[in-house]
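Fold it.
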Amino acid sequence: MRQTLFNIGFAGLFALLAVILPAMVLSVQAEDGPKAADKVAVVNGVNIERVEFEGEMLTFERNILQFGKPLTCKQLETVEKEVLESMVRRELLYQDAHNAGVKPDEKAVDKELNALKDQFPDETAYKNELSKRNMTVELLRSQLVRNSTVQQYIERQFAAKAAVTDNDMVAYYEGHMNLFSQPEQIRVSHIFIQRDPKSDEPHKQEARRKADQIMNDLKKGKDFAALAKEYSDDQRANGGDLGYLKMGQLEKRFESPVFALNSGETTGIIEADNGFHIFKVTDKKAATVLAYEDVKEKIRAFLREEKAKQEADLYARKLVEKAKVERFPIE
């Protein structure tokens, strides 16, 4: 079970830093005469480049913004130090895994690489993002191979030994009920007659007359989807269907009247600055809570993964004590 399901707060993000970060990282072997300004650390002769560190920070800050306010200067300084130390520990875990002969999961690497690429509308946008990070496709794949090697190492050395009890799983379930709750959902269709707020009065009146005619047709029993396909200025191709929505996904002015409808019912004409709106609810799903029995195996896998990361981090901290690590000023 991944972070997309088990959302975490600021402290939880620090825990993630302990072992694996989702940024683009590639450590390279030190060469003669590198400038200190080009790197932030050297770990047993392997450079951690400054551009790699900056990529880690960019990703971390983007993740933090999903949870609310941006970091303060003091928080940023703390994060920078912890990001650097997490990169040092991860490099040591990779070195240990490599020495132990651990191999990456090549199929998983290819799948992740394709998933990253699919986040972009086209090849140009994909390569532009890589360029912003001073990254190439080849270097990105190399980074994913290294991350996969560390992951395989953690699973082999720590996950298999991580014990998760029934009490652990029940406690997590009961303590995180919000993660297993599904709010009420309604399936909504929409007819929209656009009106330019800057247009003259005759044009505004024409839009209103069109909306009134559609409303009259609906009252006579004409099909909502057919009218949407014929007249709507939005979602016309699929008969105005907006899919299933939860509270908070519609504009405030629409939310109350739409969620008050029963399945099969239609709102009146709702006027807005941009035109006239008519909504129909075609289905409703009541709020539900996923049963413990249905999610316990996912909880078990998640808790085992978290315990494995914690154990791996403790082990990596011991490796730091024995390693030759040189750190350079971040700023």
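The radius of gyration is 27 Å.
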